[in-house]
Design brief:
By secondary structure, the protein is of the alpha/beta class. The protein is about 30% helix and about 30% strand. The strands form 2 sheets. The chain has a 7-stranded mixed sheet, with helices on both faces. A 5-stranded antiparallel sheet has the order 1-2-3-4-5. Strand 7, helix 3 and strand 8 form a beta-alpha-beta unit. The structure holds S-adenosylmethionine (SAM).
């Protein structure tokens, strides 16, 4: 008898949909103090990181998300030197951020050290820059760290969080954005993963309202593909302190001193060119 394929399935209740990847087996499972962490070996997408039953990344397609979290915000800042990553325990965003020689220091604050330790073992390619002398990895609650950060100490804050449930919920709050606003210098940028513009307008709109309510003057949402996330269309939202956005450093972005798989000047521009169904829904926030 031939063996039946085995599948990992993520249900998306809000869309009445589910997404499956064929697997060879489960490589790891543990319950940390904060969440359940699992790693599966898939047949076609490499290793898969799952937290509390939600896909965080696959080895094959995480580059869309990590490049779009890192590069648009960095190229939108005139002189980005000091950065913080809140969440991001898989270290993929950190790896992209550190590709920029102008970044002098990055502090990554993830609440759960176990996520990083598991990723060091099963996703070594994402953790390849963890020993970079510019990087500091801390394991505490991101909102607590941000509330204690010195005023004006950061140029860019990347919020690479889990969904707004469990420990990630506070990272989608006005209080958190107010702490980020205080920690950024003039012209500073926060960028946060902002879920699917097709499925999660109920998260995206309040996020923008809260960013503005916390003092950010201007926001920009970027849309990009993320095949293993619900419905495959994802977003990140940037907000700028003090000044409105005025384009990005296109000349620098056209000649990055590193290779990319998705990010280019054109995909950056394209991500900012919101499709009408998104633009319409964000027009009044
Ligand atoms: N790209 C992923 C996604 O959207 O599915 C997120 C990846 S990353 C693994 C998310 C990280 O956020 C996790 O490692 C989790 O521990 C961390 N996290 C959740 N709540 C946090 C908090 N309050 N402070 C710091 N990190 C937090």
């Amino acid at each position: 008898m031939t063996e039946q394929p085995r599948w990992f399935r993520e249900d998306c209740d809000e869309a009445g949909s589910a997404f499956s990847l064929q697997i060879r087996g489960r490589l790891h499972q543990e319950q940390s103090p904060y969440q359940t962490i699992e790693v599966f070996e898939t047949t076609h997408f490499g290793n898969l990181l799952v937290i509390d039953d939600f896909i965080q990344l696959s080895a094959r397609d995480n580059f869309f998300y990590h490049e779009m979290m890192a590069h648009p915000a960095i190229y939108s800042h005139a002189n980005p030197r000091r950065a913080a990553i809140i969440g991001g325990g898989d270290c993929g965003t950190l790896h992209e951020v550190l590709k920029h020689p102008e970044i002098e220091q990055v502090t990554q604050i993830d609440i759960d050290e176990r996520v990083t330790r598991v990723c060091e073992r099963f996703f070594p390619e994402l953790c390849a820059s963890n020993d970079d002398p510019r990087a500091t990895l801390l394991f505490i609650d991101g909102i607590r760290w941000m509330e204690e950060a010195p005023a004006g100490a950061l140029d860019i804050i990347f919020v690479d969080s889990t969904d707004p449930i469990g420990p990630g919920e506070v990272l989608f709050s006005r209080d958190f954005y107010a702490a980020c606003h205080a920690a950024l210098g003039e012209g500073g940028i926060i960028v946060q993963q902002s879920e699917s513009p097709l499925l999660h307008m109920d998260i995206l709109r309040p996020m923008i309202e809260d960013m503005r309510g916390a003092g950010f003057r201007d926001t920009r949402t970027l849309c990009f593909p993320q095949p293993t996330y619900p419905c495959g269309l994802w977003s990140a939202t940037m907000a700028r302190k003090g000044l409105p956005f005025d384009g990005f450093r296109e000349e620098d972005a056209a000649h990055p001193p590193f290779a990319t798989q998705y990010y280019t000047v054109d995909t950056h521009r394209g991500a900012l060119a919101l499709p009408p169904f998104v633009a319409r829904q964000l027009a009044d926030v």
